[in-house]
Amino acid sequence: MYTISEVSKRFNISQRTLRYYHEINLLIPNVNHKTNYRHYDDAHLIDLQIIISLKKMGMSLDQIKGMLEGIRSKNTNHRLENAINLEISVIDKEVAKLMNRKNKLLRLKNGIELNPTMISFDIQRLLEYITHNDINKESTFPIQNFSAEEIEILKGLPNLDDPTAVNRDMKELLQMIGRGISKSNDLLEKQIYTKYLKVVPPLFNYNYNLEKKYFDVLEESASKEAKVIPFNQSFFNYVNQILVKFDDRRH
Fold this sequence. Notes:
By secondary structure, the chain is mainly alpha-helical. The chain has helices spanning 4-11, 15-23, 42-56, 61-71, 76-114, 120-128, 148-155, 168-182, 186-203, 208-224, 233-246, and strands at residues 2-3, 30-32, 37-40.
């Protein structure tokens, strides 16, 4: 048996909250009517863990009460299993939040590497930025503009919003373009073109028409709203300049 003080310390929850749970019949302890002391057993602790987990998942106390009524009809092992599964769900949710936060920080880091002269506005845009690679965004990539085969190819493109999807060659290409936008020369332009041919056409299964159509859509979107590298108007202007200069297919 555990006193209300012991339960409060173990679960880092106030005694006032435990008394309130008793008042609303959410968690009913054993009460010594001579002393009015509240005592809790192992089953109470399992129920309290379930309550805490469900609260973290955003459920109201009324909803939790309804769930507990069904869970309490099970044996102790089953109730404990429920408590564990719920806490795992809470942890999974927290892990997802942390991974999302980590990816935002990695995008910021990548953005600074790609564009060392980023101003504070660019940094804020980068943190909020979601790339246009998701062809399900019909406002950016109207489905009717792409065939089923093309859509399958686009689905396989790396998502530049996910730092882990940016391989070394892609990152080097974006860094070279970033340098070229600031201060270009013939040698760098030739290097960019060579790297571009190595990195980009394979992503589109060497389908030049799809490649061009894809970047035309991106360029149109970039012209409507300023974005940090890799998708801003300066980026497209510079890349087009290089492709026109070196690529006969685009003449």
